[in-house]
Design brief:
single chain; alpha+beta; GTP Cyclohydrolase I, Chain A, domain 1; GTP Cyclohydrolase I, domain 2; 2 domains; five-stranded mixed beta sheet; 21% strand; elongated; binds zinc ion; GTP-CH-I_N; GTP binding; zinc ion binding
């Protein structure tokens, strides 16, 4: 999705997103389907809360993550070594079960001419994580966005995450993490650069 897809929600006088009736009804239906009574006291306001929580979980649809890389610094003082942001925590949701994916990402690039403020890499990650995702695509999208916008010598993204759909249902394997990586440019082509970045990331 791009920034022109309208995921922006109408806000009520309390500053919170307005939840349309059909959305609240859908969540009530799901509560019933799960086996509970959506009219009991504890669940009365749950449909609204769930709907608003999902606006937050999926905030990424309302933004184009590449905007975070539009302001670059060209004066890098001859610095041409790799830049690494390690173990950035994130939360996403899997597109197959809408279950949480929680994990950490390490993002590195080898600048050519341009660098960005280091917090911007985390913003790019969040822009893609706050959508319905699969871990492989999330990893690839973050790498590609940096590659396209900074045009560096190389990009490396490694994501390690746990999937709620594996830990809480199905095979129920808590503690099992899945690791995905995407290497581009020098990190893909040059054995020494790849070794360096992976060891700095702790792999
Ligand atoms: Zn899943």
């Amino acid at each position: 999705m791009t920034s022109d897809s309208t995921a922006t929600k109408t806000l009520g006088p309390d500053g919170k997103p307005v939840v349309p009736d059909h959305v609240a009804d859908a969540i009530r239906t799901l509560i019933e389907w799960a086996g509970d009574d959506p009219t009991r006291e504890g669940l009365i306001d749950t449909p609204k809360r769930v709907a608003r929580a999902w606006v937050e979980y999926c905030q990424g649809y309302a933004e184009d993550p590449s905007v975070h890389l539009s302001r670059t610094f060209e004066e890098v003082g001859g610095y041409d070594e790799l830049v690494l942001l390690k173990d950035i925590p994130f939360q996403s949701h899997c597109e197959h079960h809408m279950a949480p994916i929680t994990g950490k990402a390490s993002i590195a690039y080898m600048p050519k001419n341009r660098v960005v403020g280091i917090s911007k890499l985390a913003r790019v990650l969040n822009g893609y994580a706050r959508r319905l995702q699969v871990q492989e695509r999330l990893t690839a999208e973050v790498a590609q966005c940096i590659w396209d916008n900074l045009q560096p010598h190389g990009v490396a993204v490694v994501i390690e995450a746990q999937h709620g759909c594996m830990t809480g249902r199905g095979v129920r394997t808590p503690g099992v993490g899945m690791v995905t990586s995407r290497l581009l440019g020098c990190f893909l082509d040059d054995h020494r650069s790849r070794k360096e970045v992976m060891s700095l990331m702790g792999y």
